[in-house]
Amino acid sequence: MTKKRLILAPVVALAVTAAIALSGCAANTATTPAADAKPLDGGTIVYGHQQEPACVFGGWIEQAYLSYNVLDSLVSLDEDHQVVPWLAEKWAVSDDGLQWTFDLKPDVKFTDGSDLTAEVVAYNFDYWVNGGGNSTALAWLGGYYQGAEAVDDLTVQVDLAKPYPRLADNLTQGYFGIQSQKALTERTQEENCAAPIGTGAFIVDHWDRGQEIVLKRNDGYTSWPANAEHTGPALVDEVEWKFIADATTRVAALKSGELDAVYDVPAVQWKPTGDAGFTLEKYVTPGRPQVLTFNTAQGPFTDESVRQAFAYAVDRKEIVESIGRGVIPYEGNGGVSQTTPGYSQKAADWYTQDLDKAADLLDAAGWTETDSDGYRTKDGETLEVTLPYFTGSIITADGVSILQGVQEQAKKSGFKVDLIPVPQAEAFSGAYSKPDERDIYPGYWTAVTSGILQINWGAGSDGNPNNWNASFTDYPELQALILQANSEPDVDKQNALYEQAQEYIAEHALAIGVYDRLSTLAVSPKLKGVWQEHAQGGPTFYDAYFVQ
């Protein structure tokens, strides 16, 4: 059965694959509780997730998923994409847009016993932008944030260099969880990495690296967000957040009854899992979808005609619909996903497969000859491009199949695409990050606004390049549109500017969309109240409970 409400929770998995294999004879159909089944007090949720991060708090979405359950933020995002109170009861913006004031809830304590104060919040802002283990927070605040100070015990003032009307929206992301100043200043970096101290519904009890993180209930919790479904402490005693990379193993463990929820259900297993009685949820994350960004600094894609030819050569929609089986949405927009405010459908529809156009564009670009393998050549050089992709949760198994489909179709127009799988450890160490190492970059970046365009396409600063710009090239006209949009207070005008920016990306074929990034979840019918936070689709277990 599939519910319309968007809900997410990371997948629970068994540590020992053999144990799951032995349970294969168990019933694969969920036992559904009676409609009037009563809620149970307490209990332990066993949840399996595909990806283990290095720290609980940080700048990666896998960290945001975890920290959202441990660290409260100033504000939350509801189902209607409206910013609602969390640690901040209310907030205001000055007429010139350069000063934000947040009024905090009284009598909130961190789990180390220290008080939530305006001074602590101001410290967190400075911590984020000064190397506090969170490059994503810096990416969102950089160029805007000037400083923060306590006006009184419960009022914090944030000063900006230029207007940033979507600041509160961006603060709903899990990268902006508030930590105890006492913990940040008195504990070691390793301690704060493994078990950050927040005011949240759960506390990190322990972390068995490579196996699981156990979260226990914060019995003194008083600071739930306005969009929560109950008040008071969490309803369950603890969450065993297990890590297992293989999606098939996770789903098998759910069906055997050893897990209560699993994350990232493969498209091929989606319908059978729902038919077996498990609740299915999927969340299309806003921000940059899974796109192919072309290296326009060097190589064949410096020629706009070649980029456009590639866009016309591949029927991305057909590939995604075939492999995605109606679960993974096709996304033609190379800038932002369809759930992002300010989305341009015009940009999404810019290119559909047209092999004749692709051929004409390659001819015009001088790639007129064909070798014995069918690849285009020019002056004896093969039209060969490198496409490295990062494995694991960045490009999942379904994503790899989609990239293989792109490779196959591009070959028909004469492109030789070299797909190179890159382990995450190598990716995070900088592999294939330089202009001479790749021609196409596949990747996503979750966000709540089209302001993600500034991170992905903004110019460098202080003589340094923007390392998040996968094209390796500055486009002043595009960057001016994005900056203007970021500071525009009128929502309709802002969205129109963001749409123009996306259409610039499409017109010049700087990047093309392929599919929207999903967070999917399958949940036992015995577990209720698991929901996705609406900024990034992360799982929240605060409202979760078991029924008989």
From TrEMBL:
* Signal peptide per UniProt: 1-21
Molecular function terms, GO-annotated: peptide transmembrane transporter activity
Q: Which domain of life is it from?
A: Bacteria
Q: Which segments constitute the Solute-binding protein family domain?
A: 82-450
Q: What is its main location?
A: other
Subcellular localization(s) per the UniProt record:
Cell envelope
CDD domains reported for this sequence: PBP2_NikA_DppA_OppA_like_15
Q: Name one GO cellular component term.
A: cell envelope
Keyword vocabulary terms for this entry:
Signal, Transport
Q: Name one Pfam family in it.
A: SBP_bac_5
According to its UniProt entry, the protein's GO biological process terms are:
peptide transport
Family assignment? Belongs to the bacterial solute-binding protein 5 family.
In its UniProt entry, what is this protein called? Answer: ABC transporter substrate-binding protein
